[in-house]
User: What shape does this take?
Amino acid sequence: MTDWLFSSDCHVVEPLDLWNERLPANLRDRAPRRERRDGGGWNIVVHVGGRDVRAMTFEAENFEHDDDQPGAGSGYEPEERMKDLRADGLSGEVLYPTMGNFGWSMPEPDIGAAYAAVYNDWLAETFATKPDFFVCPGMVPVHDLDLAIAEVERIGKLGLHGAMLPLTAPEGRPYHLPEYEPLWDALDALGLPVSAHIVTGMPARALAASSVHREKAPPISLFGEIRGAAPAQVMLHDLVVAGVLERHPNLHFVMVESGIAWLAWLMESMDSIYQRAPMRRARRAAKLSLLPSEYVKRQCHATFMNDPIGVANRGITGIEALLWGNDYPHPEGTYPNSVEKVKELFAGVPEDERRAMTGLTAASLWGFPPQGTA
Assistant: This one.
């Protein structure tokens, strides 16, 4: 089996000085900074919610951001990334932020918008110049909808390949509210997929609490990846029941790194609840012409690395909802053994279905030209 592989979930590791150099001078104290950890490695610290928060930890041997660190440049150097990923059997990838994600946790609209603008400009200057390998969605700040719509329009002008929203909406303003309709209109007009990555949009106090949780976590903690699925379910549910997908049938949403095992359960549960007799009044108010699961099959997707339960449930979710990714360069991903992991995961899956999940659906979604698929 020698498939054409395309990853729907990878990450840049931005240059550490990116925001310190490019944010307006009066906002540079909010740029992420690096601090040495006791015993080796680094903490990435951001000032959010009135306090310094240890938002990320990098072990020295992995992502030190030092020029002499082997592999460190692969996070932000296009040529180095292409070498790594081609060696891993890939022909393209969708890129998501690392430190840029903190911008969505800044409650001040001007700071969040500035974080997004810095990231989007840098992405357009670097990876987006090589569209034959890199798919580059831009960040959309959501604390102020006028700023959000302006950045959506700028994403189109920059030539980026999609838009990103935080998976968790701002506190007290869930995505089902009517106030978001101008944003859905703008994203629909952009004509590109909308992605939402796990653990994005955490409010300042939650980001701080998460930092404390990591400090007190047991030696082996499984919570990090598992917690991503719950907000993905909330966002997908809200988009369906609020009629966003009904009103915008060409707008596609991608839940990134959430896994897929939960998707079949959510689709079946939404249909079951929606069809119950006590829901008659709610059904009339929702003005939906399809069952909830039908909107999901038509317009929603989720990415996964190694999810045999989700693959087994493809008869319920549909093939096009499922997008494989190797999560490079994160250590929990399948790099540098993606070809072998794909063979194991998709053993016994028909070839056309396997090829759809490992690249062809994503290529169609983002308008990326697949090669060697004949």
Observations:
- The CA atoms of residues 217 and 223 lie 9 Å apart.
